[in-house]
Amino acid sequence: MNRQGCSTGHSEVWFDLYEDWGLIEASFATQYGIRLRNEPDMSWGEFTTLLAGIMQKTPLGQVISIRSENDKDMLKHFTKEQHRVRDKWRNRKVKKLVTMGKKEAESQIQMFQDMCKNAFGKN
């Protein structure tokens, strides 16, 4: 997913499945016409594939674009709200890096993956 979120090699993660769930739901509805709450049989594999394809013109895509922007010329033209969104995300990332150890982070990731597999099927 590169800039869209999931780590592929050394890419950074630009969304949080828990905190951004509303944006994910809205983006699936916008881009695919899928209401996730009405999709009890969607497999984990299908969900992650669709999530990887979320485009910039969706609610999640727009927020990811703001969070991941590093171009100084683009940042000069950001609104106060865009700066707030970007700064909040980057400050959150720094705080988590300082407070969460590697074992705890791995445990949290595994717990979330297990929860999603149970919710969306075993694929």
UniProtKB/TrEMBL annotation:
Pfam families: Phage_Gp15 (PF06854). This is Bacteriophage Gp15 family protein. It comes from Anaerosalibacter massiliensis.
